[in-house]
């Protein structure tokens, strides 16, 4: 099995070097929102992970409902107004309960499920992103299309289908 | 500053109080190496507006007062840490704090430190005088209010190493929690240090600016003239738009070191030592000498007292006492001299001396006579609670606009208010046992009453370190009082008392939970300075209080059998408690109690506390029991990983089983190379039924790179352990700046079996209810040494503990390789991901209206109007370059993007790469992309 790497650049993208290498692990997404570039958070094939001092990395199985959070299909962070701590969002592939979001308001240490209203995706999420300052506007890409939320994930509105066609 | 200075000082000024800041002007190490620390002042005022500008409101700035920090790291090879010796009235000792510090002295409010004023910060390190080959030393820290000329002692630390100088000093302005979003400032001037007896300038400050993009701290630094010297003024922010505020100029260039020199006189202007008065008295066998230092004197360093039998101080003195201790103002010497004369000398912290002062000792007044009351061991006490709090400005000036001022609250501010308290408990205590307050942290008070057993007629000095207020009364005379909330700065008083029993009353209250502190010491004829022992503290015996009989047996196998039987003497016994030293080890709800369990190695001091008639207690005299047990052997090595002097009983109860009781940290390990599986069962642990042990004590498994080292020199570590009050945990998976040394989440409850597995650099922690079916608890990638010391860990902090932590583990196995039943769950495969589809979405951090969607075949779609319209953003790219796997947008320029794209070609070779936009303007349609052939450095 090949070693799986993630890379970091400290010079504006001129060069990259590997910071984590872990066999059997697939990196699906990464965010830097823990106040330090040395502590990225990862969505991985084996769950939510966070790195520390570059070469260390930890998977967090202590989260409730962890079995359905493997893999983490999407991970994103957004702001919380004046609060500097990042908000990390995610949803795991959970065919039995599509559309749910798993949300942490504190660096990924504590999590809660939220069930959005409005247009609820029928599939799993692939990617998420959130507005960085106030954190109200989110974009959510699910297997059945692109969704938008203007209230921090409480309600969703479908914008495109999975082929990229406007709704 | 050069390596090798023993004194260093500088003036600092805060032009305004910003938000959430640690102004650390001290960051030092000592020679020899091994001890380091930092210190400064802390806190802040909430900033204003969306850009977090400082709140310059004059009333707020004038009313706010900072807190402070002084923390030390390291210890000696026996694990002995740095200890607090003396404190200011505004700082409180904290022996165990965060970030691994070994000793700390901090305060929450320094009332005399104000915005816009200059303060001289001074530190000196020294070894004791008149001690051959000392293995310890001291560091003192002082603060001078330049506007008043008054010096204040901050504190004195005892270092467990013979440190003689500093290695250097640095400083930092740390934003505590807001990532430098606001702007903060500090001014510095007149920096000096002394090396080899010569004063030298410390007037050059270097700023090491990182490369941009790592830690973007923007400094504006300006050198400003002031009289015969210059001021180095600095402002700092992570937001360059906030700079400068009060200065001029542009931020320092990133990626290089900047040096600034502030002109100043070659030699410092030093305050002079002064002594306001020296007095002496003698009873013919002892001489008591006391002196006063005026507030504008330079700080005392060494005092020397010589006692002569002649008024001219000729010949050799009868007795001499000298000491490098800045806090002492009163000494008592045994000296059989008629009409003694005292010659007093003093050296200040800069080694300047006063002209010796000569005084004739006056005759002591007659000693107070003893009483003839019938007494019994222990002091009578009353515990009071004050549940109400009231707003009153004691530390902060009144200011309706300052939150800290508005929120300042107190339970009580004076001993005269104790009458408003609610009596919740009373009885007979073993001396000044303030632990009778239990878990209450604030708003309580004690009234101790009884007798002081004086062993011999003579002069006695009482030395009190107490926080908060206290009043000590002997034979009806108010001997020593310090009312109001304050830190445990030492105060002394002397009494002349006859041998026998003397009426004693001590009132003491704790207002707020900064850190309560109570230590009352005495010294007398032939009696060196020491805490007043419980054997010298008595109460009037009425013959009507319950008594307990304690019988002991065992002690040869690390355990003992103890039995307590209470004679209630007409009272109702509610609880019987058994104590070992200061810690409770057992409790019953009736008049008898039995204990069969672990004990400490060596002599165990056992005593009982009876709770009777609901809110009365009585403590017994101690009984001793010597205990020994089976030592750790059979290839296992026991290492004291904490302080060597901590009390403990660590025993090997079977070839694969161990037990522990006590304080400190201990590992029992074997060396193992490569992959391994380490397993044990935690049979029992204190805290599982709510016992009042320190909740962060634990027992379990550890693997360390250097298991034979203490003081955190053991290198990298992985562990899984049962905590006393916080469940089953592993070592941290975050940066752990608070030094909790454990993870934030619990592993499953009800799992006594724990296991760790090493597979190359991947460490997994497991737990099980039955030792057969294992559940994965944590997965860490941690590069560590090929060979590790792996085994059992017991760790117990004293801190708030009221009972000793104890635990038993069994079935300990350490096997090479990965156990067959260790199976990491496999991920669930995603579905509905095939075909041409959207694969990702990214927003621009700098502009929320810019959104980019990636696809599996059609490249990127980009919206610049909040998603209303979308355009392809692929330029001339086609084919595999539009199978986009990842997209990144520059955080500050939404026109700069990276795309990672590609697919497996028909030949199975990879077809793809990394592209970067080269030009978007003016159409913003991403028409131009360049392949970014980034070199990837392997480490």
The low-confidence parts of chain A are 62-68, 82-86
- What is the helix tally of chain A? 0
Identify the biggest protein-protein contact and residues per side: A-B, 69 and 59 residues
CATH class of chain A: Mainly Beta
Q: Kindly, what is the distance between the CA atoms of the first and last residues of chain A, rounded to a whole number of angstroms?
A: 42 Å
Overall geometric form of chain A: elongated
- Strands of chain A, count: 15
Order of helices and strands of chain A: EEEEEEEEEEEEEEE
- Give the overall form of chain B: globular
- First-residue to last-residue Cα separation of chain B: 36 Å
Explain what this protein looks like in three dimensions.
The complex is a heterodimer of chains A (167) and B (939). Chain A is an all-beta fold. Chain A has one domain (5-17, 26-161): Methylamine Dehydrogenase, Chain H. Chain A contains no helices and 15 strands. Chain A has strands at residues 5-8, 17-21, 27-31, 41-44, 47-52, 56-59, 72-80, 83-92, 101-104, 112-114, 117-118, 125-130, 138-142, 145-149, 155-161. A 5-stranded mixed sheet of chain A has the order 11-15-14-13-12, with no helix packed on it. Mean pLDDT of chain A is 69; it is low at 62-68 and 82-86. Chain B has 939 residues and is mainly beta. The longest helix of chain B has 6 residues, at 58-63. Chain B is globular. The model of chain B has no long low-confidence stretch (mean pLDDT 91). The chains are: A mainly beta (167), B mainly beta (939). Chains A and B meet through strand 2, strand 6, strand 12, strand 13 and strand 14 of A and strand 59, strand 62 and strand 63 of B.
